[in-house]
Write a structure and sequence with these properties.
amino-acid biosynthesis; 8-stranded mixed β-sheet; alpha/beta; P5CR_dimer; 2 domains; single chain; about 280 residues; Rossmann fold; ProC C-terminal domain-like fold; 12 helices; Pyrroline-5-carboxylate reductase; cytoplasm
Length: about 280
């Protein structure tokens, strides 16, 4: 039987924090979750989730402090520029052993640890947007005071909305360039595939349907079979057939090089953001 998760606070439950709250509620493994948002309207969108208490700072200005003081795991989901102020607010209220989890892109473990203090376990997490449908990839990196048990607990939390990969912090930006930004690459491919269908005379509705469902179906087949994607591609690609001709065009356009260049650009921008550029 899956473990029941302890009391969780999600401070600044925007799109990502809200997705995680939804995953926790769906799992039934987190009966005590408090989420905070600045406005009552945003808080209302999460108010109906099972086991979740959604609070607006507009109604309760001390909600972040109260939620952090009562939690065993505190997820910090506010915008990166707001992180330091929030940590200074909640640090005095953290109970011994409480795990602080960063969802803030570009904010290092060292920054968190410098504010919350020595001995407070900190874990940096990088989920992606498919968390909304329970299909996230989340990278996690342990801080200096985080034990293997702490990391295991954070892993169990994020496994309620997808899969988890543990990496050293030095690889977080690289992971983000693949799984964090990756959904955008897939959506872009679907957009262009749809345009190709329109260019062949299909209606907008039919073009979108065939392009989107082809991607969805291919991903489902990959998931169901567990086969290597290269092997599945070979099964579709008959020798001297139409697919082989099309794939040759894509490979001739240096598709591998383009993906390498694109993900390198994402990593470079992440380093610029971390430096305040």
């Amino acid at each position: 039987m899956a473990q029941t998760l302890p009391t969780i606070a999600i401070l600044g439950a925007g799109s990502m924090g809200g997705a995680i709250a939804t995953g926790l509620a769906r799992s039934g493994r987190a009966p005590r979750v408090t989420v905070t948002n600045r406005s009552a309207a945003k808080a209302e969108t999460l108010a109906g989730l099972e086991g979740v208490t959604s609070v607006a700072l507009a109604d309760a200005p001390d909600a972040n402090l109260a939620a952090a003081a009562a939690a065993d795991i505190v997820l910090v989901g506010v915008k990166p520029v707001m992180v330091s102020d929030l940590l200074r607010e909640i640090a005095p209220a953290l109970r011994p052993g409480t795990i602080v989890v960063s969802l803030a892109a570009g904010v290092t473990l060292a920054t968190f640890e410098a504010i919350v203090g020595d001995g407070v376990p900190v874990v940096r997490a990088m989920p992606n947007t498919p968390a909304v449908v329970g299909k996230a990839v989340t990278g996690v990196s342990a801080g200096t005071a985080a034990s293997s048990d702490d990391v295991a607990l954070v892993r169990a939390l994020f496994e309620t909305c997808g899969v988890v990969i543990e990496v050293p912090e030095a690889q977080i930006d690289a992971l983000s360039s693949i799984s964090g930004s990756g959904p955008a690459y897939v959506f872009l491919l679907i957009e262009e595939f749809t345009e190709a269908a329109r260019g062949k005379g299909f209606s907008d509705a039919d073009a979108r349907l065939m392009a989107e469902q082809t991607f969805i179906g291919a991903a489902a087949l990959l998931d169901a079979t567990g086969e290597d994607p290269a092997e599945l591609r070979r099964k579709v690609t008959s020798p001297k057939g139409t697919t082989e001709r099309a794939v040759a065009v894509l490979q001739g356009a240096n598709l591998a090089g383009l993906f390498s260049e694109a993900t390198d650009a994402a990593v470079a921008r992440a380093k610029e953001l971390a430096a305040g550029a």
